[in-house]
From TrEMBL:
Coiled-coil regions listed in the entry: 44-78
One Pfam family in the UniProt entry: C1q
Record's subcellular location: Secreted
Signal sequence range: 1-18
Annotated source species: Cirrhinus molitorella (mud carp)
Domain named C1q: residues: 80-216
SUPFAM superfamilies associated with the record: TNF-like
Keyword entries, A-Z: Coiled coil, Secreted, Signal
Protein name (Swiss-Prot/TrEMBL): C1q domain-containing protein
Length: 216
């Protein structure tokens, strides 16, 4: 841009110089030449003005670009710092759990992932590491000689059930999924109710999963 401006300035100087040399010419010719020369000179100053304006625009764009780059860097950092929570495990019982004499928190033993370490493999309890919106799902497969009833609990309070009743039918599949806003430290776990049973095989048929959608 600066080079173009310099080139145009040179061009303008040459035009002024050309105008000077016309002094040797006949007066009549000179007047017409002068008329011809004033026009390119005006064009020249107009172009310079436009160039100046363009340079201003580029400066403004450079500032906006620098701001955008700073914002992108900030967003990248925010993304890096964002808590990442994802857990998934199958019951890993390789057979029936239950029927039980009392309600029991299920410990899903066969852990696929536990990003953020929010799931406790010894207790079966998922504890929210941050306040946020979380998605939960819990599926099962089981025979029907006894009923199956799984309940998703939050802090001692039932939130959602999945179940089938006792029947002479072939095994059942069931499941449920829900989204909850959890406070930091809230505990979520799956409870198998008294008198019920559930089943899992090496095929991982009964799986409990959680992931954080967004910290709030
Ligand atoms: C399942 O059994 C319960 C009682 O244990 C009963 O209230 C419920 O209606 C039954 N559900 C179905 C779908 O039959
Ligand atoms: C069940 O999960 C375990 C552990 O992740 C894996 O090794 C196994 O292959 C899975 N079984 C099937 C049938 O996918």
């Amino acid at each position: 841009m600066r080079l173009t401006t310099a080139a145009l300035l040179l061009l303008c100087e040459n035009l002024i110089f050309a105008s000077g040399t016309t002094a040797d010419l006949e007066t009549s010719e000179l007047s017409t030449k002068d008329k011809q020369l004033t026009c390119p000179l005006k064009v020249c100053t107009d172009v310079l003005k436009e160039l100046g304006a363009a340079e201003q625009q580029i400066k403004a764009l450079e500032i906006r670009l620098a701001n955008s780059e700073a914002q992108i860097a900030e967003i990248k950092k925010e993304n890096q710092d964002k808590p990442k929570v994802a857990f998934s495990a199958s019951l890993g019982s390789n057979g029936f759990v239950g029927p039980l004499n009392e309600d029991q928190t299920l410990v899903y033993k066969n852990v696929f992932i536990n990003v953020g370490d929010a799931y406790n493999q010894d207790t079966g309890i998922f504890a929210a590491p941050v306040r946020g919106v979380y998605y939960f799902s819990f599926f099962y497969h089981c025979a029907t000689d006894h009923p199956t009833q799984l309940v998703l609990y939050r802090n001692g309070k039932p939130e959602a059930f999945t179940q089938h009743n006792q029947s002479s039918d072939s095994p059942e599949n069931g499941g449920n999924g829900l989204t909850l806003l959890l406070e930091k430290g809230d505990q979520v776990y799956i409870v198998l109710l008294k008198g019920r049973w559930v089943w899992d095989s090496p095929s991982n048929l009964s799986v409990f999963s959680v992931f954080l959608i967004n910290a709030m």
